[in-house]
Protein: Citronellyl-CoA dehydrogenase
Amino acid sequence: MVLTDEHRELQRTVRNFVEREINPRVSEWEAAGYFPSRELFASLGELGLLGINKPAEFGGLALDFSYEAVFLEELGAAHCGGVPLAIAVQTSMATPALARFGNDALRQEFLTPAIRGSMVGAIAVSEPGAGSDVAGIATTATGDGDDYLVNGSKMWITNAPSADFFCTLVNTGEGKPHRNKSLLVIPADAPGVRVGERLKKLGMRSSETAPVFFDNVRVPKRNRIGNEGDGFLLQMLQFQEERLAGALLTIRGLENCVSSTIDYTRERQAFGGALLDNQAVHFSLAEMQTEVECLRALTWRAIESYVAGEDVTTLASMAKLKAGRLGRSIPDQCLQFWGGMGYMEETPINRAYRDSRLTAIGGGADEVMLGIISKLMGILPGPHAPRPHGGNASRKEETQREH
Structure:
């Protein structure tokens, strides 16, 4: 995809923001286990960066997703994964379905302040017994007049301790698991909502993650996004942007791994010369950078198709899968070249090693991505395998089969 001057200007804006407002404070935020999301989101909102592809009537810039993609890729250059992840939750996980399918009153109440940066959003789908298996969620929303009564719990919810609202997937009926669910916007201050203690994690330490509990939470039915029973489909559509975001956030972080390792191995002396001078080292780094460029090409091909209105279920799943794979292999290989220093927490490669591991899990594990790709290739074994269709199944058809 060819980037325009407008794309490049946005790229410069985001790059400057990351270098000025995020990277100098990363070490402090990582040590604290959180960052001042309201302060940072307000600054992003002032620049219009929280609503790049959101409707203009609710404060967005109404640009196509390629501009959001530029934003996300540059955001990934931050010297940690936690802060970009928290921001991407706001722009690409908790609000896409709300922006596309929410009623005007709901969008005015929650989307407009989210774009402005005066509200923090979170996506509440995963549960203790249902992570990648979205169809297996147990949280219920029982109709009670003009309201729902919500009961259940969600787990591993990024932004939860600071969130003003949760875009929450719930069961609103019986029947087939892909037809009995709805998406609700639940205010964090509603009676019966409780956010648990912050979870201690391997990586992404600067982002806040916690469980959320719902005990007879009364939510107006007007807070439902779309029609009752359409929640599974809407969440699957929302996952497309989330998975593209996951791939985009990975690219610059992996490049940082390679470039910082080049700098370190050029300075590190071993056996009478720079470690970088060893063929095994510089060949490995060259191959890593090649893999990053392959990921970038695949991801941007998916984005170009997405902007054109095409189904990108296969390409987005492939990009997410490749990002997860490289998020494990490249930091691991780079850390090896850092030796003992790479094992120290204060080094950038150590943080990248920890943070990037989540890419293969969050937003659908690698195994789920492989299952989706296999289905769309028509090679899934068993009586329910779809016939080959060249990967061009409709988004609705695939999301109904995904789980």
